[in-house]
Amino acid sequence: MKKQICIVGSGTSGLQLAYALKEDFVVTVIHASSAEKIRSGRVMSTQVHFGTTRARESRFHMPKWDDSNPLKSIHITIGTQKLFTGMLKEDALSVDQRLYYSACMNDLESNGVTFRQFKLTTEYLEQLVDDYDLVIDCTGKSGPLFPFPIISELSPFDMPQRKCITGYFLGIKPNVPLGVNVTVLPETGEMFEIPAVTEQGPVTILFIMAVPDKELDTFKGVKDHIEFTMQMKQSVQKFFPEIYRRMNIEEFALTDENAFLQVAINPEIRKPYLTFNDKLIVGCGDSVFLNDPITGQGCNLSSYCAEQLYETLIDYKHDKWDENLGETYWDRTKEYVKEVTEWTNAMTQPLPQHVVQLLMNGAKNQEQADRIAEWFADPKSAHEAFFQKQGSN
Ligand SMILES: Cc1cc2nc3c(=O)[nH]c(=O)nc-3n(C[C@H](O)[C@H](O)[C@H](O)COP(=O)(O)OP(=O)(O)OC[C@H]3O[C@@H](n4cnc5c(N)ncnc54)[C@H](O)[C@@H]3O)c2cc1C
């Protein structure tokens, strides 16, 4: 008989796991909102799925998106000085999670995965754990539901390092070659401009990461979409003149009234398994590996860990599911989690001098510019540049 797995949460990690596991196990997904409510609701995030994540999506036969205009590059500006455009080795793609999640949920349901809609609370955990061979906590940044232990050396902050302010907009002429446009305003914050695929077609995400209480932190108390759009226009005009020049003021508008978000994240890394009522429980994605969005790694790390968890469960398919399985999963993921986390945490602080020098070198040398673009697709190389071979990457 196939083992029964319950995945709590239908985000990036929960959905990829459901696709990966559905052939070998009986999979149930518990989700707080219906696919329709997600599709027509508030944006949840920004996202860039790099080459390795897209390869995993293909491997697990996840839905394909319009990739006629893929992201090919990373543009880097410091202050108002454009440094370079680095080319990615593989195309990346950003698909609005409202579209992505709802399409995956409907597709999975029509392919034999059971969906149960309710917001799980801790009082039902014992019952749930009894009912399945394994529960996987994929509850994202609002989780975890289970008390996975915090790893203090990878969780150095006790408050968010940035305020995340993001909206999906029409009326911005895309940069060329199409790619993610990163502007760093030292000690003030960053802007990520991300061309994205949405239900309304191609749009531009403007994502401000403001250092709390510094000049960019100007969206306090902004609640409605009209006020948000006005404030974004003013901020872009004042701090990001190059983007402002590509803005068509008449057409500049949110794609819909729900296309904006303000949130602040306190990064926290946890050991992703524990025993609860004598059963193994594992966590995947933001519920256990929650980083600041500043390096755009959340979806990619969630996808990486989901694949590692899948491989581990397949290896243990006919064995007992206990702490050994949990430890194997953690052994397979911990190095990558550590590299992503240390790099991401470093990016929230003033950049070390040798990293500033690497960025400056990128302005003079296209190979160096391409290497820096690849930091985002291959965070191991970013970690190396920041911490190991200083000055050589
Ligand atoms: C503003 C912002 C910008 C970001 N930008 C990027 C970026 O550019 N690139 C990138 O890779 N990542 C980015 N991220 C991070 C990325 O969105 C997350 O890392 C990724 O979505 C995590 O996937 P997940 O499955 O762990 O959680 P989620 O995608 O958050 O999914 C969790 C799911 O669990 C459900 N859930 C939660 N609790 C319960 C419960 N009790 N019962 C039932 N269901 C529950 C939720 O409804 C949700 O559907 C950003 C995040 C934010 C907030």
TrEMBL record:
Residues 140-246 form the Styrene monooxygenase StyA putative substrate binding domain. GO terms for molecular function: monooxygenase activity. Signal peptide: none annotated. Keywords: Monooxygenase, Oxidoreductase. Pfam families: Smoa_sbd (PF17885). This is Styrene monooxygenase.
